[in-house]
Design brief:
alpha+beta; tt1808, chain A
Length: 211
Amino acid sequence: MTASTAIQKRNLTDVNQLDFNQLYTYEDYCTWQFPERIELIDGVPYQLMSAPKIIHQRISMRLSGWWFIFLQTKPCEVFAAPIDVYFPNPNAGKKNTVVQPDLCIVCNTTKIEEKGISGAPDLVIEILSNDKKRDTHFKFNLYQREGVREYWVVHPEEDWLIIYTLNEDKKYIGSKHYSVEDEKINSVLFPEFELDLRKLFEAQTPKNDLN
């Protein structure tokens, strides 16, 4: 890499300066000065939508609230987006992957750093949005490879949830597609955590109480 190429990858002030056919590192990412949210997966940049839909936010807030209450008596902590989760890449020599999961749970406090989470969280939850392939393919492979022990994928518009857990061969085994008909389910990693799917997916109609 030439010095001029390195400069072009760093200190960017506009997302349009990114070349989505280029590979970047976490060190590049830390110098960017634009408000748009970006993820790097093996050096490839992906732009996140600026503002999730209300249904996405509603589910995210419910899950983060329930997990926060559940974990208060446990040595684990839940974090909600935007938070950087970055992975060292020993083969590449530099960190070139940083993602912002919707929610993640970390039980190893040494992974919690000032800039984010270094290494695999114990549990990750992604709520599907427009770019479903990123969560169901690219991030699925990333979390499996990096050893995220439990991975939830939530479809907010079709009202289903699937739980992937790592087996002894470090491969994900998926559950069935849980829906409101299943009523309540439990986390595999935290079996005491019970989730009421009817409450998770129920619509909430705004009330006009200001008149």
